[in-house]
Amino acid sequence: MSVAFRRESDEEHLEPRFELPIPPGPNLVTARGLRLLEAKVAELEVALPTLSEDDQRKAHLRDLRYWRTRLATAELTEPRADGMVGFGSKVEMLLGGKPRKIDIVGHDEADPASGRIAFTAPLARALIGAEVGDQLDFGGKDAAIEVVAISLD
Fold this sequence. Notes:
five-stranded mixed β-sheet; Chitinase A, domain 3
């Protein structure tokens, strides 16, 4: 019989399940971010014994490995206290003339829709090191950002 007509199993045709990718670089977290990581790991650990289906359990264990790794590598980082924008800062600014508020946080805490952006995001990188009153180039535009206020997380 031709190999084209032979079917060994359904398993050989499934896409492989890879581990969830860990963002490169340090795993900086705010105090809030650390609490969120701890809560996520606890939530996944509590749910684990209730899973009986093999595929569901494997996916859950993969998620649990990711979040345990993120918790184990978390580096609690205090916000800058020198009046400059840094990790953990809350920034009020004018972006293209429109008011905007953001918090600069770690990867796992980031939620752009809520105004929390990762410290590696282009906007955060443009702001880090700035002071109130600074005008910064961003997105190929001169003075696209004006820092209005900086506070700590």
